[in-house]
Automatic annotation (TrEMBL):
Superkingdom to which the source organism belongs: Eukaryota
TM segment ranges: none
Chain ranges of the SET domain: 73-262
Pfam family, one: SET
Protein name per UniProt: SET domain-containing protein
Leader sequence segment: none
């Protein structure tokens, strides 16, 4: 089960196959077959990206969220002319194509107080932020691969000096033994979280299912490489702890994948307000 929780689908599949052949196995064959079927499904999804959530959507998002697996499509990490590093298409991509599915290192969700007192909402957000920090730190301590991947993210300074990691590091099959056992730097983790954490109900994003009623924040490592642009080509969906990125228009090979700064379908007054908040002259 440990490999499955770490999203190591292929390794988990091999382990369950071996256990099924072991007469001394402590888990009964029915349970093992159940885990085998689950591993096969997740390994297939991770390899092909053929996700189908249509039935869940048609049913009004009722019931348990569909099972998802991490998937990386035709993208790579390169130096960006926008800022630091970015995610780029490795081939021509049609509008609507799935680009990636990634699970959060950690998330924190809550219902913010409905009040005219802004301090109540801010205090609630601070509590959520503290809880998110603790969850991320716990994940980093428990798994050196997780710790290493978090540390590949930007702290918001010296962007030009940052190394460009190979996309293979972020694939589920990446071996944990290939990651160095680094000492945890609390200050570095906090800076990384401050720069890279994402709010679920944000621009260019949609939350599906029961979490749509909550204010959510989390850290999705690979999605953190996606910059923002005035001419965006991608949008994100949130289902459970998974972030799903689709192309929102046709994308050419070598083009950077970007999210919108703000929703162009908003009323003019609201768009202008968003632009001013981001430092644009409108």
């Amino acid at each position: 089960m440990g490999y499955l929780k770490l999203l190591r689908y292929s390794v988990a599949l091999d382990c369950f196959k071996s256990a099924l052949l072991d007469p001394q196995a402590s888990i009964n064959s029915e349970s093992l077959n159940g885990f085998l079927d689950k591993c096969k499904k997740l390994e297939f999804l991770s390899r092909t990206g053929t996700f189908d959530i249509s039935e869940w959507v048609v049913n009004g998002f009722r019931g348990k969220s569909p099972e998802l697996a991490e998937y990386i499509g035709a993208v790579e990490i390169k130096k960006s002319e926008i800022s630091g590093r970015g995610l780029f298409a490795t081939k021509n991509i049609d509008c609507g194509t799935l680009l990636l599915v990634t699970k959060a290192i950690a998330t924190e969700r809550g219902i913010l107080p409905q009040s005219n007192n802004d301090d109540l909402a801010e205090n609630a957000k601070l509590v959520m932020w503290k809880d998110l920090i603790n969850k991320v730190l716990k994940s980093a301590i428990q798994c050196r691969k997780t710790h290493h991947l978090i540390c590949t993210l930007s702290m918001g300074e010296d962007e030009d000096a940052l190394q460009v990691p190979d996309i293979s590091l972020y694939r589920p099959e990446a071996e944990e033994s290939s990651f160095s056992d680094e000492k945890l730097d609390m200050g570095k983790i906090l800076s990384i979280l401050d720069v890279n954490s994402l709010v679920e109900d944000a621009i260019s994003a949609k939350v599906l299912g029961k979490n749509s009623d909550y204010h959510g924040v989390g850290l999705w490592v690979l999605a953190s490489f996606i910059n923002h642009s005035c001419n965006p080509n991608a949008r994100r969906l949130h289902i459970g702890d998974y972030l799903i990125v689709h192309a929102s228009r046709d994308v050419k090979a070598g083009e950077e994948i970007t999210f919108a700064y703000f929703d162009m379908l908003f009323a003019t007054e609201q768009s202008e307000g968003n632009g001013e908040d981001l430092g644009f002259s409108v």
